[in-house]
Amino acid sequence: MLELKNLRCCFGDVVAVDNASLSIAPGEMVGIIGRSGSGKSSLLRLINRLYVPQQGEIFWRGQSVTALKGKELRDWRGRSAIIFQQFNLIPRLDVLTNVLLGTLATRPLLPSLFKSFPAEQRARAVMELDRLGMVDTAFKRTQNLSGGQQQRIAIARAMLQDPEILLADEPVASLDPINSEIVMQSIAALNRERNITLLINLHSVDLARRYCSRVIGMNNGKIVFDAPVEELTDQEVDRIYGATSQPCQADLAPQKELKTARPAAVPPTIRGEPQLESIA
Amino acid sequence: MSAEAALIARAEAILPGAVIIRLERRIKTALAVAAFLIVFVACCYDLGLSWDVLGGGLVKMGTILGAMWPPTSGGELPRLLLALVQTLAIAVLGTLLAALVAIPLGLAAARNIVPNPAIHFAIRRFMDLFRGIPVLVWALILVAAVGLGPIPGILAIAFSDIPRLGKLFAEALENVDARQQDSLRATGSSTSGVFRFGVVPQLLPVWLSQCLYYLEQNFRAAAVVGVVGAGGIGFELEERIRIFAFDEVAFITLMYIIVVGIVDFGSERLRAHLT
Amino acid sequence: MKDSAASTGTSSLNRVAAIESEWRQTIRKSRLQTFAWMILVSIILLGSVELSAVGKSSVDAGWIDRIASFVDRLIPDLRADALFAGRQVDGSLASWFYDLPRWLEAMRETVAMAFVGTVVGGLMALGLSFQAAANLNRNAFLRHTVRRGFDAARTIPDVILALIFAAAFSLGAVAGVLTIIITTMGSLGKLFSECMENAEMNQVDAIEGVGGNRLLQLRFGILPQLLPQILSYWLLRMEINLSVAAALGIVGAGGIGMELERAISFTEFDTYLAILILIVFCIFVIDLVSEQLRHRLIGLTQ
Ligand SMILES: Nc1ncnc2c1ncn2[C@@H]1O[C@H](COP(=O)(O)OP(=O)(O)OP(=O)(O)O)[C@@H](O)[C@H]1O
Ligand SMILES: [Mg+2]
After folding, report:
1. Residues A160, A100: contact at Cβ < 8 Å?
2. Are residues B21 and B122 in the same domain?
3. B149 and B90 in a common domain
4. Domains along the sequence of chain C with CATH
5. Domains of chain A and any CATH numbers
6. B149 has a chain C CB within 8 A of its CB
7. If you measure CA to CA, which chain C residue comes closest to A109?
8. What does the DSSP assignment read for B9-22?
9. d(CA B17, CA B19)
10. Is residue A38 in contact with ligand 1, taking CB distance under 6 Å?
11. Is the CB of A277 inside 8 Å of chain B's CB atoms?
């Protein structure tokens, strides 16, 4: 159970998150939508404590994580994995090491500094890569891989953390449609099979409708919509994106387009890529 | 078999070599690290660096640092200021001399000016050889040759900078954009006209800013050459270190650092303006 | 400007005249500026000549003779017939380089000074440069303290530092190594921290988000992306430090420079030349090796 109470976070004059309250049940898959700058990323980063809230509280399983410090804070970050839009991998390290970095929170410092990880963790990393169809790239440098491949490595890294909650910040925003589907399916599978609570920022209303059971809409730092996905009508979408105010037209256009041009079905196999069924 | 061992076995089967790191790979890195450490420790030993020496020295260093407080001019402020300005003067003249000699060398070493590869290759290698000689080494021999005073200092700075500036000048020449020359030639300009209007305007700011950078560096070099008898602030400092007048050493050093900061700042502004 | 159709012709003529006069003014201004600069530079140069007392220095009438006799003593008396004879034979190469084994030993000491100084100074620079980078250290006071420290370490002339260290650690290689450590720390620290300020922060974010502490964030978020740059600066510094180490010996801080100083004080100028050739050769070789290494490193980044 994740609970946010009156969370507020500002940078100078900009209020990134304004009085946000939420309650998410274990195992839920919740999508967050909103136009650019509405505070979606900030919300996720607050939960993971990459940002510090000026006000309000965050509870996980009844315990406050708002004031954690030092080892306890790192522990919490270990349990709440985060995936970034830009993957945030270490380009000059090989794929396997990148995945193993997910264990940093629970491992002693000295071996980690020398990139020395025990066989069991390496085995887990291999299994995660295998599940995502990425095992062939294990010894390659991440900088030479495609965006979709990199995002799957980031997912594997998050899985090595053995997280209780997964925060995904626009995981497919910089991917092409096919790779988006592969990554979205991998993430949804984690929620289904491992019962990991999932909070996912999406730039596309269509993806939110197809994958999430519940949708949260943000506008200007405030939570303006929070309901099961069935209640997300087109009028609500317009309201969330603030369709009445002119400057956001540019944001809105691609969303509409995506909605009409929804990919009919996921192609069963993609050349050189794993079978989607093996992910699911 | 435990669950853990089973997991390892399965993963090893999927991707051999990923889970159980082969001994030889570990040994290779370990050997490289060990070799480096051994060389390092051997060097320290060779130099007589031991904890005893360091400890004893640090205690004395503490006393010296203590003696530096409070810094004092020793009542010789005008003399020190004069020495500081003299040092700056040595740097200016040394840089000027170096630049004057480096211009023809740079021209001769530039591929697009001298078409004969043998000539510019020879000149470049020659400059490379001389680039390694530190300014203090030049100063020592020049003081022996022409006697004490600012002249060996100026010459030492010039000699050590001629090959460095020459190389930079040549590189700047080679980087001149040829399109402007072409368009000038197309309008029927003479060779000297092409050079005056197609090359010089591009080249001059670069050369000037390189000279200014070397002037900054030479202010430091001029203090260094003073120590072996070329006058200026280096001489004053050396004299006071020899008689353990560390409060005055601290004063001169602080004064010097501030003036270097000012010169650097001014020269940086000028260089930013030039480019 | 009036916009009636009749005055169009005159107004365009006026405009041409205006542009021309403006252009003239610009030219005049830039000529004036150049002139002012030339005057300023001349004043500086004249002042330099006057202040440095070049005219009054020891260059007297007999200076040509002096230089001639100096050059005469600088050039070794080699004899073609005895070039490869033993050390006892006058005019042989061996008698010119009569103390070669000792010089080589001193040269080894110089190389060791440069190596140890570069390694330790570089490590200190690496450890401190995180503190001097604005994106990695938000504490402005600490950041500026470290930066000013780097500046000071770079600015104090190395020879002066060596003399001060020699006062504490006695003359010898230890004073030289400590000097090289300090100056290397200053210059590399500045360069490293500038690199770090240009580093991509999202890798640091990733390690922080995973739950890695500060050290791990630097180890995995910063170090891998900057390693090629850092190493190539480090190698470049090694080249520079080799000539610094050679020079420091002249004020008694160990290594080959002490042999140079000895040769000068015994006025054995031909010996000085021999040692100088040895130094230049060693620096040249190490430069070549290090240049190769640096090019390989730069190749790695692309
Ligand atoms: N580290 C930061 N420093 C300063 N301002 C920030 C920072 N992070 C976010 N902001 C500001 O907070 C507001 C919300 O940003 P946030 O990144 O949360 O929006 P978002 O909904 O994720 O947008 P996008 O869809 O473009 O990623 C923005 O105005 C942004 O400029
Ligand atoms: Mg965002």
Report:
1. yes
2. no
3. yes
4. 97-298 (1.10.3720.10)
5. 2-279 (3.40.50.300)
6. yes
7. C216
8. HHHHHHSTTTSS--
9. 6
10. yes
11. no
ipTM: 0.86
pLDDT band at A176 (very low <50, low <70, confident <90, very high): confident
> Shortest CA distance to C254 belongs to which of B49, A165, A193, A162?
B49
Distance in angstroms (rounded) separating the CA atoms of residues B221 and B215 = 9
Q: Tell me the pLDDT of chain C averaged across its residues.
A: 86
Burial pattern B79-88, b for ≥16 Cβ within 10 A else e, equals ebeebbbbbb
Question: For testing the chain B interface, which of A96, A120, A136, A278 should be mutated: the one with the most B CBs within 10 Å?
Answer: A120
Pairing relationship of beta strands A214-219 and A80-83 according to DSSP bridges: unpaired
Domain that holds residue B32: 3-49
Crossing angle of helices C140-155 and C173-197, rounded to 10°: 130
Distance C24 CA to ligand 1 centre (A): 52
In the reported structure, the alpha carbon of residue A53 is separated from the centroid of ligand 2 by a whole-number distance in angstroms of 17
Residue at B145 is within a domain: yes
**Distance (Å, whole) CA A178 – CA B130:** 61
Task: Note whether residue B66 is domain-resident.
Answer: no
What is the predicted pLDDT for the residue at C268? 85
Q: Give the total number of structural domains in chain B.
A: 2
Interface test with C, best of B130, B131, B136, B256 (most C CBs within 10 A): B136
pTM of the model: 0.84
What phi, psi does B119 have (nearest 5°)? Answer: -65, -50
User: In this predicted model, what pLDDT tens digit does every residue of C83-118 receive, in sequence order?
Assistant: 777 777 777 777 788 788 899 999 999 999 999 999
Q: Which two tokens stand for residue B242?
A: 């020899």
Q: Which two tokens stand for residue B80?
A: 């020190």
**Contact between B252 and B72 (Cβ < 8 Å):** no
Q: Do B134 and C243 touch (CB under 8 A)?
A: yes
Please, are residues A187 and A166 in contact by the beta-carbon 8 Å criterion? yes
Chain A residues in contact with B8 by the CB 8 A cut-off are 119-120, 123
* Residue A269's pLDDT band (cuts 50, 70, 90): very low
The three-class DSSP label of residue C125 is helix
Q: Are A26 and A195 in contact (CB under 8 A)?
A: yes
- The answer to whether residues A118 and B20 touch, using CB atoms and an 8 Å cutoff, is no
Q: How far is B47 from B28, CA to CA, in rounded Å?
A: 29
How far apart are the C-alpha atoms of A261 and A255, rounded to whole Å? 10
What residues have CB less than 8 Å from B231, skipping those under 6 apart?
B83, B86, B90, B148, B149, B150, B153, C52, C53
C-alpha distances in Å from residue B216, one per residue of B94, B95, C256 = 12, 10, 28
pLDDT at A270: 34
State how far residue A280 is from chain B, nearest Cα, in angstroms. 19
Three-state SS letters, chain A:
CEEEEEEEEEECCEEEEEEEEEEECCCCEEEEECCCCCCHHHHHHHHCCCCCCCEEEEEECCEECCCCCHHHHHHHHHHEEEECCCCCCCCCCEHHHHHHHHHHHHCCHHHHHCCCCCHHHHHHHHHHHHHCCCHHHCCCEHHHCCHHHHHHHHHHHHHHCCCCEEEEECCCCCCCHHHHHHHHHHHHHHHHHHCCEEEEECCCHHHHHHHCCEEEEEECCEEEEEEEHHHCCHHHHHHHCCCCCHHHHHHHHHHHHHHHCCCCCCCCCCCCCCCHHHHC
CATH code for position B174 = 1.10.3720.10
A177 C-beta closer than 6 A to ligand 1: no
**Mean pLDDT confidence for C153-178:** 92
Q: pLDDT tens across B221-237, in order? A: 999 998 888 888 998 89
| Alpha-carbon dihedral angle through residues C114, C115, C116, C121, given to the nearest 10 degrees | 80
* Residues B274 and B267: beta-carbon distance below 8 Å: no
Q: What is the pLDDT of residues A82-129, one digit of tens each?
A: 999 888 999 989 999 999 999 999 999 999 998 889 889 999 999 999
